Amino acid sequence: MLYYLFTYLDKVLNFPGAGVFQYITFRAMGAIVFSLMIASIYGKRIILLLQNLQIGESIRDLGLQGQMQKKGTPTMGGFIILASLMIPVLLFAKLDNVYIVLLIIATLWTCGIGFADDYIKVFKKDKEGLKGRFKIIGQVGLGLIVGLTLYFNENVKIRVYEKGKISTAVGEIQKYTDTHSLTTTIPFFKNNEIDYHIFGSFLPESLAWLPYVLVVIFIITAVSNGANITDGIDGLAAGTSAIIGITLAVFAYLSGNKVFAQYLNLMMIPNSGEVVIFCAAFVGACIGFLWYNAYPAQVFMGDTGSLMLGSIIAVLALALRKELLIPVMCGIFLIENLSVILQVAYFKYQRRQHGLEFAQKNRLFLMSPLHHHYQKKGYHEAKIVTRFWIVGIVLAVACLVTLKLR
Protein backbone atom coordinates (compact mmCIF):
# COMPACT_ATOMS: atom_id res chain seq x y z
CA MET A 1 0.00 0.00 0.00
CA LEU A 2 2.81 2.39 0.87
CA TYR A 3 4.44 1.52 -2.46
CA TYR A 4 1.42 2.78 -4.39
CA LEU A 5 1.08 5.86 -2.18
CA PHE A 6 4.70 6.90 -2.61
CA THR A 7 4.64 6.10 -6.32
CA TYR A 8 1.73 8.54 -6.64
CA LEU A 9 3.57 11.15 -4.54
CA ASP A 10 6.69 10.74 -6.68
CA LYS A 11 5.19 10.67 -10.18
CA VAL A 12 2.19 12.96 -9.76
CA LEU A 13 3.17 15.41 -7.02
CA ASN A 14 6.96 15.12 -7.44
CA PHE A 15 7.28 14.80 -3.65
CA PRO A 16 10.97 14.94 -2.56
CA GLY A 17 12.35 11.54 -1.51
CA ALA A 18 9.23 9.58 -2.48
CA GLY A 19 11.11 7.83 -5.28
CA VAL A 20 13.11 5.81 -2.75
CA PHE A 21 10.17 3.40 -2.56
CA GLN A 22 10.99 2.24 -6.08
CA TYR A 23 14.08 0.48 -4.72
CA ILE A 24 13.58 -3.13 -3.66
CA THR A 25 16.43 -2.94 -1.15
CA PHE A 26 14.83 0.02 0.67
CA ARG A 27 11.44 -1.65 0.86
CA ALA A 28 13.03 -4.93 2.01
CA MET A 29 14.80 -3.12 4.86
CA GLY A 30 11.55 -1.39 5.75
CA ALA A 31 9.72 -4.74 5.74
CA ILE A 32 12.20 -6.46 8.05
CA VAL A 33 12.30 -3.50 10.47
CA PHE A 34 8.48 -3.32 10.62
CA SER A 35 8.28 -7.08 11.04
CA LEU A 36 10.66 -7.06 14.00
CA MET A 37 8.85 -4.10 15.56
CA ILE A 38 5.44 -5.73 15.25
CA ALA A 39 6.70 -9.00 16.75
CA SER A 40 8.47 -7.29 19.64
CA ILE A 41 5.73 -4.76 20.44
CA TYR A 42 2.60 -6.82 19.88
CA GLY A 43 4.00 -10.30 20.50
CA LYS A 44 3.70 -9.93 24.28
CA ARG A 45 0.12 -8.69 23.94
CA ILE A 46 -0.80 -11.68 21.79
CA ILE A 47 0.78 -14.02 24.35
CA LEU A 48 -1.24 -12.39 27.16
CA LEU A 49 -4.39 -12.72 25.07
CA LEU A 50 -3.69 -16.42 24.51
CA GLN A 51 -3.13 -16.85 28.26
CA ASN A 52 -6.39 -15.07 29.09
CA LEU A 53 -8.22 -17.34 26.64
CA GLN A 54 -6.51 -20.30 28.34
CA ILE A 55 -5.02 -21.47 25.06
CA GLY A 56 -2.29 -23.59 26.60
CA GLU A 57 -0.30 -26.53 25.30
CA SER A 58 -1.38 -29.93 26.61
CA ILE A 59 1.73 -32.04 27.07
CA ARG A 60 1.83 -35.79 26.61
CA ASP A 61 4.47 -37.25 28.93
CA LEU A 62 7.19 -38.79 26.74
CA GLY A 63 9.77 -38.99 29.49
CA LEU A 64 11.82 -36.06 28.16
CA GLN A 65 13.79 -33.86 30.52
CA GLY A 66 11.93 -30.62 31.41
CA GLN A 67 8.99 -31.57 29.23
CA MET A 68 6.21 -31.36 31.80
CA GLN A 69 7.37 -27.88 32.90
CA LYS A 70 6.05 -26.61 29.56
CA LYS A 71 2.50 -27.66 30.31
CA GLY A 72 0.15 -24.69 29.94
CA THR A 73 2.56 -22.63 27.80
CA PRO A 74 0.40 -20.64 25.34
CA THR A 75 0.17 -22.12 21.86
CA MET A 76 -1.17 -20.72 18.55
CA GLY A 77 1.76 -18.28 18.65
CA GLY A 78 1.81 -18.60 14.87
CA PHE A 79 -0.48 -15.57 14.91
CA ILE A 80 2.54 -13.51 15.99
CA ILE A 81 4.34 -14.69 12.85
CA LEU A 82 1.23 -14.09 10.74
CA ALA A 83 0.81 -10.48 11.89
CA SER A 84 4.56 -9.74 11.70
CA LEU A 85 4.66 -11.11 8.16
CA MET A 86 1.43 -9.94 6.55
CA ILE A 87 1.38 -6.31 7.72
CA PRO A 88 4.84 -5.42 6.29
CA VAL A 89 4.06 -7.33 3.06
CA LEU A 90 0.80 -5.42 2.60
CA LEU A 91 2.59 -2.14 3.32
CA PHE A 92 5.76 -2.54 1.25
CA ALA A 93 5.15 -5.06 -1.56
CA LYS A 94 3.48 -4.70 -4.95
CA LEU A 95 0.21 -6.49 -4.36
CA ASP A 96 -0.47 -7.09 -8.06
CA ASN A 97 2.63 -9.28 -8.39
CA VAL A 98 1.64 -12.91 -9.10
CA TYR A 99 4.29 -14.32 -6.77
CA ILE A 100 3.25 -12.07 -3.88
CA VAL A 101 -0.41 -13.04 -4.40
CA LEU A 102 0.47 -16.76 -4.33
CA LEU A 103 2.57 -16.32 -1.18
CA ILE A 104 -0.23 -14.45 0.59
CA ILE A 105 -2.70 -17.21 -0.35
CA ALA A 106 -0.27 -19.89 0.87
CA THR A 107 0.26 -18.04 4.15
CA LEU A 108 -3.42 -17.59 4.96
CA TRP A 109 -4.43 -21.02 3.63
CA THR A 110 -2.07 -23.10 5.74
CA CYS A 111 -2.41 -20.81 8.74
CA GLY A 112 -6.12 -21.63 8.57
CA ILE A 113 -5.42 -25.38 8.43
CA GLY A 114 -3.02 -25.10 11.38
CA PHE A 115 -5.50 -23.01 13.35
CA ALA A 116 -8.21 -25.64 12.85
CA ASP A 117 -5.79 -28.28 14.15
CA ASP A 118 -4.80 -26.24 17.21
CA TYR A 119 -8.43 -25.26 17.91
CA ILE A 120 -9.51 -28.92 18.04
CA LYS A 121 -6.58 -29.79 20.31
CA VAL A 122 -7.16 -26.91 22.74
CA PHE A 123 -10.91 -26.36 22.83
CA LYS A 124 -12.21 -29.81 21.87
CA LYS A 125 -9.59 -31.50 24.10
CA ASP A 126 -8.71 -33.87 21.29
CA LYS A 127 -4.94 -34.45 21.34
CA GLU A 128 -5.01 -35.83 17.79
CA GLY A 129 -6.25 -32.50 16.45
CA LEU A 130 -7.43 -32.20 12.86
CA LYS A 131 -7.56 -35.58 11.15
CA GLY A 132 -4.52 -36.22 8.99
CA ARG A 133 -6.59 -36.71 5.84
CA PHE A 134 -8.09 -33.23 6.20
CA LYS A 135 -4.62 -31.70 6.54
CA ILE A 136 -3.52 -33.51 3.40
CA ILE A 137 -6.65 -32.41 1.53
CA GLY A 138 -5.90 -28.80 2.51
CA GLN A 139 -2.28 -29.07 1.39
CA VAL A 140 -3.28 -30.72 -1.87
CA GLY A 141 -5.78 -27.89 -2.45
CA LEU A 142 -3.03 -25.31 -1.98
CA GLY A 143 -0.76 -27.32 -4.29
CA LEU A 144 -3.44 -27.24 -6.98
CA ILE A 145 -3.80 -23.47 -6.69
CA VAL A 146 -0.06 -22.83 -6.79
CA GLY A 147 0.70 -25.42 -9.47
CA LEU A 148 -2.08 -24.37 -11.85
CA THR A 149 -1.25 -20.69 -11.40
CA LEU A 150 2.45 -21.19 -12.13
CA TYR A 151 1.58 -23.42 -15.08
CA PHE A 152 -1.06 -21.25 -16.77
CA ASN A 153 -0.47 -17.66 -15.62
CA GLU A 154 1.24 -15.68 -18.40
CA ASN A 155 2.96 -13.39 -15.87
CA VAL A 156 5.12 -16.32 -14.74
CA LYS A 157 8.06 -15.84 -17.08
CA ILE A 158 11.78 -16.29 -17.47
CA ARG A 159 14.13 -14.14 -19.53
CA VAL A 160 15.77 -15.87 -22.47
CA TYR A 161 18.83 -14.12 -23.90
CA GLU A 162 19.57 -14.36 -27.61
CA LYS A 163 22.98 -14.47 -29.29
CA GLY A 164 22.68 -11.14 -31.09
CA LYS A 165 23.20 -7.70 -29.54
CA ILE A 166 21.53 -4.33 -30.07
CA SER A 167 23.52 -1.09 -30.29
CA THR A 168 22.14 1.72 -28.15
CA ALA A 169 23.29 5.15 -27.00
CA VAL A 170 24.85 3.58 -23.91
CA GLY A 171 26.52 0.72 -25.78
CA GLU A 172 25.60 -2.77 -26.87
CA ILE A 173 22.99 -4.76 -25.00
CA GLN A 174 22.10 -8.40 -25.42
CA LYS A 175 18.75 -9.15 -27.00
CA TYR A 176 16.23 -11.10 -24.92
CA THR A 177 12.62 -12.17 -24.73
CA ASP A 178 10.51 -12.75 -21.63
CA THR A 179 8.63 -15.98 -22.15
CA HIS A 180 6.22 -18.10 -20.13
CA SER A 181 8.12 -21.24 -19.17
CA LEU A 182 8.26 -24.08 -16.65
CA THR A 183 12.03 -24.36 -16.86
CA THR A 184 13.73 -24.91 -13.51
CA THR A 185 17.30 -25.02 -12.23
CA ILE A 186 19.23 -28.23 -11.56
CA PRO A 187 21.88 -27.50 -8.90
CA PHE A 188 25.55 -28.53 -9.23
CA PHE A 189 25.33 -29.14 -13.01
CA LYS A 190 26.57 -27.19 -16.00
CA ASN A 191 23.81 -26.12 -18.43
CA ASN A 192 21.64 -26.73 -15.41
CA GLU A 193 18.07 -26.27 -16.60
CA ILE A 194 15.21 -28.65 -17.28
CA ASP A 195 11.72 -27.97 -18.60
CA TYR A 196 8.82 -29.67 -16.82
CA HIS A 197 6.92 -29.74 -20.11
CA ILE A 198 8.91 -32.82 -21.14
CA PHE A 199 7.17 -34.84 -18.40
CA GLY A 200 3.76 -33.99 -19.83
CA SER A 201 4.69 -34.46 -23.48
CA PHE A 202 3.32 -38.04 -23.54
CA LEU A 203 -0.08 -36.92 -22.21
CA PRO A 204 -3.00 -35.36 -24.10
CA GLU A 205 -2.69 -31.57 -24.29
CA SER A 206 -5.60 -31.15 -21.88
CA LEU A 207 -3.63 -33.08 -19.20
CA ALA A 208 -0.12 -31.79 -19.90
CA TRP A 209 -0.25 -29.77 -16.67
CA LEU A 210 -0.71 -32.86 -14.48
CA PRO A 211 2.95 -33.93 -13.86
CA TYR A 212 4.02 -30.41 -12.89
CA VAL A 213 1.05 -29.90 -10.55
CA LEU A 214 1.71 -33.28 -8.90
CA VAL A 215 5.32 -32.20 -8.26
CA VAL A 216 4.09 -28.92 -6.72
CA ILE A 217 1.60 -30.76 -4.50
CA PHE A 218 4.31 -33.16 -3.31
CA ILE A 219 6.77 -30.34 -2.55
CA ILE A 220 4.25 -28.22 -0.62
CA THR A 221 2.97 -31.20 1.37
CA ALA A 222 6.46 -32.52 2.16
CA VAL A 223 8.00 -29.20 3.23
CA SER A 224 4.92 -28.12 5.18
CA ASN A 225 4.84 -31.39 7.13
CA GLY A 226 8.62 -31.26 7.55
CA ALA A 227 8.38 -27.88 9.26
CA ASN A 228 5.51 -29.21 11.37
CA ILE A 229 7.57 -32.19 12.58
CA THR A 230 10.61 -29.99 13.23
CA ASP A 231 8.58 -27.78 15.57
CA GLY A 232 9.22 -29.95 18.61
CA ILE A 233 11.59 -27.99 20.82
CA ASP A 234 11.99 -24.30 21.63
CA GLY A 235 13.26 -22.18 18.75
CA LEU A 236 14.09 -24.99 16.33
CA ALA A 237 11.49 -24.46 13.59
CA ALA A 238 11.55 -20.66 13.73
CA GLY A 239 15.35 -20.41 13.67
CA THR A 240 15.73 -22.97 10.89
CA SER A 241 13.05 -21.19 8.83
CA ALA A 242 14.81 -17.84 9.27
CA ILE A 243 18.05 -19.33 7.89
CA ILE A 244 16.19 -20.76 4.89
CA GLY A 245 14.39 -17.42 4.41
CA ILE A 246 17.69 -15.53 4.21
CA THR A 247 18.96 -18.01 1.60
CA LEU A 248 15.83 -17.60 -0.51
CA ALA A 249 16.06 -13.80 -0.19
CA VAL A 250 19.54 -13.92 -1.75
CA PHE A 251 18.26 -16.08 -4.61
CA ALA A 252 15.27 -13.82 -5.13
CA TYR A 253 17.39 -10.67 -5.30
CA LEU A 254 19.93 -12.16 -7.71
CA SER A 255 17.32 -13.84 -9.92
CA GLY A 256 15.32 -10.63 -10.20
CA ASN A 257 18.29 -8.38 -10.95
CA LYS A 258 19.31 -8.45 -14.62
CA VAL A 259 22.90 -7.36 -13.90
CA PHE A 260 23.64 -10.01 -11.26
CA ALA A 261 21.66 -12.68 -13.12
CA GLN A 262 23.74 -12.16 -16.26
CA TYR A 263 27.02 -11.93 -14.37
CA LEU A 264 26.36 -15.16 -12.46
CA ASN A 265 24.71 -16.81 -15.46
CA LEU A 266 21.52 -17.36 -13.47
CA MET A 267 18.01 -17.82 -14.74
CA MET A 268 16.57 -14.30 -14.85
CA ILE A 269 12.99 -14.30 -13.51
CA PRO A 270 11.22 -10.99 -14.26
CA ASN A 271 9.29 -9.52 -11.29
CA SER A 272 10.79 -12.04 -8.86
CA GLY A 273 12.76 -9.25 -7.17
CA GLU A 274 9.51 -8.33 -5.41
CA VAL A 275 9.77 -11.63 -3.54
CA VAL A 276 12.73 -10.14 -1.63
CA ILE A 277 10.26 -7.97 0.31
CA PHE A 278 8.27 -11.04 1.30
CA CYS A 279 11.45 -12.91 2.29
CA ALA A 280 12.60 -9.96 4.40
CA ALA A 281 9.29 -9.81 6.24
CA PHE A 282 9.37 -13.60 6.65
CA VAL A 283 12.86 -13.55 8.20
CA GLY A 284 11.90 -10.64 10.47
CA ALA A 285 8.76 -12.49 11.61
CA CYS A 286 10.73 -15.65 12.43
CA ILE A 287 13.43 -13.76 14.33
CA GLY A 288 10.84 -11.62 16.12
CA PHE A 289 8.98 -14.76 17.16
CA LEU A 290 12.23 -16.26 18.44
CA TRP A 291 12.36 -13.45 21.00
CA TYR A 292 9.52 -15.26 22.79
CA ASN A 293 10.06 -18.82 21.53
CA ALA A 294 13.77 -19.24 22.39
CA TYR A 295 14.47 -21.50 25.38
CA PRO A 296 12.64 -21.37 27.72
CA ALA A 297 9.71 -20.65 25.41
CA GLN A 298 7.03 -18.18 26.46
CA VAL A 299 4.84 -19.30 23.56
CA PHE A 300 4.65 -22.12 21.01
CA MET A 301 3.77 -21.48 17.38
CA GLY A 302 1.58 -24.58 17.16
CA ASP A 303 0.42 -25.93 13.82
CA THR A 304 -0.91 -22.42 13.16
CA GLY A 305 2.69 -21.38 12.60
CA SER A 306 4.60 -24.51 11.59
CA LEU A 307 2.39 -25.55 8.66
CA MET A 308 2.44 -21.94 7.48
CA LEU A 309 6.25 -21.69 7.60
CA GLY A 310 6.70 -24.85 5.56
CA SER A 311 4.21 -23.86 2.88
CA ILE A 312 5.76 -20.41 2.50
CA ILE A 313 9.24 -21.91 2.03
CA ALA A 314 7.90 -24.39 -0.55
CA VAL A 315 6.09 -21.72 -2.58
CA LEU A 316 9.13 -19.42 -2.43
CA ALA A 317 11.38 -22.18 -3.76
CA LEU A 318 8.91 -22.99 -6.56
CA ALA A 319 8.51 -19.35 -7.56
CA LEU A 320 12.29 -18.88 -7.71
CA ARG A 321 12.87 -22.16 -9.62
CA LYS A 322 14.96 -23.53 -6.73
CA GLU A 323 12.71 -26.42 -5.71
CA LEU A 324 15.40 -29.00 -6.58
CA LEU A 325 17.61 -27.39 -3.92
CA ILE A 326 15.01 -28.10 -1.22
CA PRO A 327 16.64 -31.38 -0.03
CA VAL A 328 19.80 -29.36 0.75
CA MET A 329 18.27 -26.03 1.74
CA CYS A 330 15.64 -27.67 3.95
CA GLY A 331 17.97 -30.45 5.07
CA ILE A 332 16.89 -30.11 8.71
CA PHE A 333 13.25 -30.63 7.73
CA LEU A 334 14.30 -33.58 5.57
CA ILE A 335 16.25 -35.44 8.24
CA GLU A 336 13.47 -34.85 10.77
CA ASN A 337 10.95 -36.31 8.32
CA LEU A 338 13.22 -39.22 7.42
CA SER A 339 13.87 -40.03 11.08
CA VAL A 340 10.13 -40.56 11.61
CA ILE A 341 9.74 -42.63 8.43
CA LEU A 342 12.78 -44.79 9.21
CA GLN A 343 11.72 -45.26 12.83
CA VAL A 344 8.29 -46.54 11.82
CA ALA A 345 9.62 -48.73 8.99
CA TYR A 346 12.36 -50.26 11.19
CA PHE A 347 9.89 -50.91 14.03
CA LYS A 348 7.49 -52.72 11.67
CA TYR A 349 10.33 -54.76 10.21
CA GLN A 350 11.62 -55.81 13.64
CA ARG A 351 8.12 -56.64 14.84
CA ARG A 352 7.53 -58.80 11.79
CA GLN A 353 10.88 -60.58 12.18
CA HIS A 354 11.27 -60.85 15.96
CA GLY A 355 7.96 -59.92 17.58
CA LEU A 356 6.52 -56.86 19.32
CA GLU A 357 8.57 -56.99 22.53
CA PHE A 358 11.88 -57.17 20.65
CA ALA A 359 10.83 -54.33 18.34
CA GLN A 360 9.94 -52.09 21.29
CA LYS A 361 13.33 -52.64 22.91
CA ASN A 362 15.39 -52.30 19.73
CA ARG A 363 14.26 -49.14 17.98
CA LEU A 364 16.41 -47.40 15.39
CA PHE A 365 16.32 -44.12 17.36
CA LEU A 366 15.65 -43.68 21.05
CA MET A 367 12.74 -41.50 19.92
CA SER A 368 11.71 -39.73 16.74
CA PRO A 369 11.76 -37.06 15.35
CA LEU A 370 15.54 -36.81 15.52
CA HIS A 371 15.68 -33.91 18.00
CA HIS A 372 13.91 -36.09 20.58
CA HIS A 373 16.56 -38.79 20.04
CA TYR A 374 19.21 -36.34 21.22
CA GLN A 375 17.04 -35.26 24.13
CA LYS A 376 16.80 -38.89 25.20
CA LYS A 377 20.60 -39.09 25.01
CA GLY A 378 20.79 -36.29 27.60
CA TYR A 379 21.56 -33.25 25.44
CA HIS A 380 20.03 -29.98 26.63
CA GLU A 381 17.48 -28.73 24.12
CA ALA A 382 19.25 -25.36 23.79
CA LYS A 383 22.39 -27.23 22.66
CA ILE A 384 20.39 -29.36 20.23
CA VAL A 385 18.75 -26.29 18.70
CA THR A 386 22.04 -24.41 18.37
CA ARG A 387 23.73 -27.35 16.65
CA PHE A 388 20.80 -27.84 14.30
CA TRP A 389 21.02 -24.12 13.42
CA ILE A 390 24.73 -24.56 12.67
CA VAL A 391 23.93 -27.46 10.34
CA GLY A 392 21.22 -25.29 8.75
CA ILE A 393 23.73 -22.50 8.14
CA VAL A 394 26.21 -24.94 6.56
CA LEU A 395 23.45 -26.22 4.27
CA ALA A 396 22.47 -22.65 3.37
CA VAL A 397 26.08 -21.87 2.42
CA ALA A 398 26.16 -25.04 0.30
CA CYS A 399 23.06 -23.78 -1.55
CA LEU A 400 24.64 -20.37 -2.19
CA VAL A 401 27.79 -22.08 -3.46
CA THR A 402 25.68 -23.46 -6.33
CA LEU A 403 25.60 -19.93 -7.75
CA LYS A 404 29.11 -20.54 -9.08
CA LEU A 405 29.74 -24.27 -8.62
CA ARG A 406 28.21 -26.24 -11.49
UniProtKB/TrEMBL annotation:
User: A Pfam family in this protein?
Assistant: Glycos_transf_4
UniProt name for this protein: Phospho-N-acetylmuramoyl-pentapeptide-transferase
**Role of this protein:** Catalyzes the initial step of the lipid cycle reactions in the biosynthesis of the cell wall peptidoglycan: transfers peptidoglycan precursor phospho-MurNAc-pentapeptide from UDP-MurNAc-pentapeptide onto the lipid carrier undecaprenyl phosphate, yielding undecaprenyl-pyrophosphoryl-MurNAc-pentapeptide, known as lipid I.
Family to which this protein belongs: Belongs to the glycosyltransferase 4 family. MraY subfamily.
Q: Supply the CDD domains for this chain.
A: GT_MraY
Q: What PROSITE patterns does this protein's entry cite?
A: MRAY_2
Q: Entry's NCBIfam families?
A: mraY
Instruction: Identify its membrane topology class.
Output: Multi-pass membrane protein
Catalysed reaction, written as an equation: UDP-N-acetyl-alpha-D-muramoyl-L-alanyl-gamma-D-glutamyl-meso-2,6-diaminopimeloyl-D-alanyl-D-alanine + di-trans,octa-cis-undecaprenyl phosphate = di-trans,octa-cis-undecaprenyl diphospho-N-acetyl-alpha-D-muramoyl-L-alanyl-D-glutamyl-meso-2,6-diaminopimeloyl-D-alanyl-D-alanine + UMP
What transmembrane ranges does the database entry give? 20-42, 75-93, 99-120, 132-152, 209-229, 236-255, 275-292, 299-320, 326-347, 384-403
Pathway connected to this protein: Cell wall biogenesis; peptidoglycan biosynthesis
Q: Which InterPro entries match?
A: Glycosyl_transferase_4, PNAcMuramoyl-5peptid_Trfase, PNAcMuramoyl-5peptid_Trfase_CS
Q: The organism sits in which domain of life?
A: Bacteria
Q: What is its EC number?
A: 2.7.8.13
